[in-house]
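Table S2 (text version). Query chain:
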Amino acid sequence: MYKFEHISKFYDIFSKGLNQDVKFYLNEAKKSKGKVLEIAVGTGRISLPLLEAGVDLYGFDASQNMINVLEDKAKNKKIDTKGRIKKADMRNFKYPHKFDLIIIPYRAFLHNITPDDQVKTLNLCHKHLKEGGKLIINFFFPNPYAMVNRKEGKETDITVKRKDFSVRLQGYSRHDYTKQLIHIKHVYRVKNKGKKIKEFIEEFTLAWIGVNEFRHLAARTNFKVKHLYGDFKKRKELKIKRGELIWVLEK
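Corresponding structure-token output:
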């Protein structure tokens, strides 16, 4: 898993999440009425609102840099995270208790780039759930038309200005169609008032997983597919243009 040394500095500037995902996960957490585990908490975009709402949430991330940002935000908002957030790998984590709900939001499951890693993560989630407990995962709907017709190279070029500095993000991607992987490179160029430019480069890889492929992964790890939604409004019609798959699995 990745340390995200540089992404953590700019994550909240560029990563605003998906339409209504925080509301969706908050509602599901409240319905569970028990302990909730968030895998890959990042900078707390989802975990902090859940904790603020009184959810009995625990979480972890593979990046200490991301956790540091989360803890700073929690301190500023006076949210108590003591004993709740830790560093761990989703392929190898352990808790002394079981959960009513486990969530892996914002496509984080795709950091498992091999089938073996995907199975390891799902097996551990199954082990840490109570009987009848739920696992909710969302990731993008692979678009074969876009993949076939795409041009490899720069995909993103965004500049965000703040009072004392500006940051330009240039994102590049390269696809491995045999292994179903996307190799991503982010270049951050930071300019302050003095016009000095600092450059930071972060590289990582994501998998892409099809619908029937994930159904097989769920069955292989003894999960039942309770629901499959095409967006966070719980529409069951799957449309590539909406771009998202939300899986609700049950132990």
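Notes on Table S2: The chain has two domains: 7-141+209-250, 144-207. Residues 7-141+209-250 form a domain with the Rossmann fold fold (CATH 3.40.50.150).
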